[in-house]
Amino acid sequence: MGIKDDAVEVRAQGWRTLAALHGLIEGELERSLQAESKLSVVEYTVLDALSRQDGWHMRMQQLARATALSASATTRLVNRLEDRGLLTRILCADDRRGIYTELTASGVALLEEARPVHDATLERALAEAQGIPELAALVDALPRLHATAQ
Predict the structure, then answer these.
(1) Residue 146 has pLDDT above 60, yes or no
(2) Alpha carbons 50 and 66: distance in angstroms, whole number
(3) What's this model's pTM, rounded to 2 decimal places?
(4) Residues 87 and 103 sit within 8 Å (Cβ to Cβ)
(5) Can you list the alpha helix ranges (DSSP code H) found in the chain?
(6) Nearest-CA neighbor of 46 among 100, 87, 90?
(7) Which of 144, 142, 148 is CA-nearest to residue 21?
(8) What is the pLDDT of residues 38-78, one digit of tens each?
(9) 64 and 74 Cβ atoms separated by less than 8 Å
(10) Distance (Å, rounded) from C-alpha 47 to C-alpha 43?
């Protein structure tokens, strides 16, 4: 194996470690959010993303990027959340082809109920991952990554 092959393997191992950490955290969040708030992780992500916007709305394609879903999967998800009364769609005043998604009062209330569950579960999952030697270095790097992104 040459130097180039070694570099590829190092990146591949890093990716596998990241995927393992993501899987551990997402599984814990899914169980907790479903049990306490009847929300999936991706539903929580939508509500959270919308709550962080000025005016509490986003275009559908922005929402798709924020949730890492395809346009069609985002549409299905928005339909489900809209059917539950958690968000609504409004036409863009500037561009009639544009559709915004916005939280309803019920969506805000459910998010406020779910956020402490999400945050406590995330903290527990990260503490658990910290105790797994293969994941500990990645968990340690998270605060530095956040600081660098600022």
Answers:
(1) yes
(2) 9
(3) 0.86
(4) yes
(5) 3-37, 41-51, 60-67, 71-83, 105-130, 133-149
(6) 87
(7) 142
(8) 999 999 999 999 998 876 678 888 889 988 999 899 999 99
(9) yes
(10) 6
